[in-house]
Write a structure and sequence with these properties.
513 residues, alpha/beta, 10-stranded mixed beta sheet, 5-stranded antiparallel beta sheet, 15 helices, 19 strands
Length: 513
């Protein structure tokens, strides 16, 4: 008997992915609605499994929350699905006893996966279909054209809501512009280069070199939203098509969320796969999954260039898989912005020589479909592992502002029965490291700890800084809309620059001194 068969006999509850599907719809006003879009990927995943009448076996239907279906979304009123898992099930002819809707955030697919794994291995369910995606291109195009949206369905029942749906920023942070990823991730970028002692020009070049390699992979991916290779120079150079958004990031260094994309996969136990005669060549096993948060509010983290949570997540999954980082051949590090990848690389100890850090092409090039990106990195990882059996793949997730994290290890090598990781004690330890000297009402002189300058479609808008007062208190503040000041902050080194800060009309406003 082969080692694989022996493991299968011993670990009959080991979780295995048996079918994957992805779908990209580049239509605009006439694109598919969310139900149709997710059904396309789900049908492809079911077909990929090779199992006849699989619909009859699926009793867990999980859906990643749509980004528009959240209280901070501009067009939430246009999305009226009361129980999307059942809406999808009705389209597919699936009647699932477990209908689950995952939370807001880039780690939502892993929260969903962890829930499905726990219920499958405990015997609460036999076979799960997980799906996610976005139809934002069509939604926005129709709304801009004045067309109606019939995106609503009330199929009855209520899905089980799982995960953490807390908003990722405080009212004070939002007041000063720290509610948008395009404004916050550049703060991490300048903090990283400060920590490394590098100039803005050097850091931009390194970020562009890094993401150029991502675009190369996206250019060869049939599901990519932008299947185009971009050279480092094309990414770094400011042009009419590649404007600066949040200094030091140009447009080509920003995630792209306005897409129509869907992804799905089928998950079951090894025992169920044997029962349904799933081909060995289809099976990819989940060896570990960990979910953990960094300190929730950015402004009270000890620094802006590290992530204890992603470090712990990855090491926990590697330990569950009983392997080391050197055993990982396929990586997909969450890549909404370069700083997310750079922090993960540093935390994991990935050497600069390692270039292939994505299997899809990354969120700015492959596409960043809201909360669902890691659905796609999961399905593509399955394909890569099928092509190269007995190797290991690692994918990471990130939500809000390097806030919510997850990591997953997979392989065609059979796994052990899934064990949920309890991170409650570790989470308390991470949270305890929050600084105690943040002030919402700073007054006096200080210096810039990190910063960015926001550039809208119509030009420069304002600067955002995180600073430290002379007494050691940390604060956030904005500049006035002074174009001369903003250009100065882009063209000159502002790290550790001296500033004065005071309140004006309820906001903190700084000036260079």
């Amino acid at each position: 008997m082969s080692e694989s068969k022996q493991n299968k006999k011993v670990d009959k509850k080991a979780p295995v992915i048996v079918g994957v599907g992805d779908f990209t719809d580049k239509s605009k006003e006439d694109g598919l609605n969310p139900q149709e879009l997710l059904a396309k990927a789900s049908e492809l995943a079911i077909q990929d499994s090779g199992i006849k009448n699989l619909n009859q076996h699926i009793d867990y239907l999980g859906v990643v929350r749509f980004s528009v279906d959240f209280l901070t979304a501009t067009n939430q009123s246009s999305f009226q699905y009361s129980n999307f898992p059942r809406t999808l099930g009705n389209k597919l002819g699936i009647s699932a006893k477990q209908e689950v809707y995952a939370p807001m955030g880039g780690n939502s697919p892993q929260v969903l996966l962890d829930d499905a794994l726990s219920k499958i291995t405990s015997g609460d369910t036999d076979c799960a279909l997980l799906a996610g995606g976005e139809a934002l291109q069509t939604m926005i195009a129709r709304l801009k054209s004045g067309l109606s949206l019939d995106w609503l369905d009330e199929p009855g029942g209520s899905p089980e809501m799982i995960g953490n749906n807390a908003i990722g920023f405080s009212d004070h942070e939002k007041l000063h512009g720290m509610d948008l990823p395009t404004n916050v991730y550049p703060l991490f970028a300048n903090a990283i280069r400060k920590h490394e002692g590098k100039t803005a020009e050097t850091h931009l070049q390194e970020s562009s070199d890094l993401f150029s390699t991502f675009s190369k992979i996206a250019s060869n991916n049939p599901f990519s939203w932008f299947p185009t290779f971009r050279s480092p120079e094309e990414i770094s150079d400011v042009t009419p098509n590649n404007r600066m958004i949040g200094f030091p990031y140009t447009k080509y260094l920003n995630s792209v969320i306005r897409v129509n994309m869907s992804s799905a996969y089928v998950l079951m136990t090894q025992e169920k796969a044997d029962e349904l005669n799933v081909a060995e060549s289809k099976r990819v096993y989940v060896h570990g999954c960990s979910i953990l948060d960094d300190i929730w509010n950015v402004t009270v983290r000890p620094d802006f260039h590290s992530s204890p949570a992603i470090n712990a997540c990855v090491n926990q999954t590697l330990n569950k898989a009983e392997i080391e980082l050197k055993d990982i051949e396929h990586f997909d590090l969450y890549s909404c912005f370069p700083s997310a990848v750079q922090i993960a690389k540093k935390e994991l100890g990935i050497t600069p020589e390692k270039k292939d850090l994505t299997v899809t092409g990354g969120l700015p090039y492959f596409g960043g479909p809201g909360n669902s990106y890691t659905m796609f990195s999961t399905t593509e990882m399955v394909r890569q592992l099928r092509k190269k059996p007995d190797t290991y793949g690692l994918l990471t997730a990130n939500s809000w502002f390097i806030t919510k994290h997850a990591a997953v290890v997979m392989s065609t090598k059979p796994a052990k029965t899934y064990e949920k990781i309890d991170n409650s004690s570790l989470q308390k330890d991470i949270n305890s490291k929050a600084i105690k000297n943040f002030t919402e009402k700073p007054e006096g002189n200080g210096k810039i700890e990190t910063y960015t300058v926001i550039n809208g479609r119509k030009g420069l808008e304002f600067a955002l800084i995180i600073g430290v007062l002379e007494d050691g208190s940390r604060f956030i503040a904005n500049s006035s809309k002074d174009e001369k000041l903003l250009k100065t902050m882009i063209n000159n080194e502002m790290l550790n620059a001296k500033v004065s800060v005071s309140q004006k009309e309820g906001k903190n406003i700084f000036n260079l001194i």
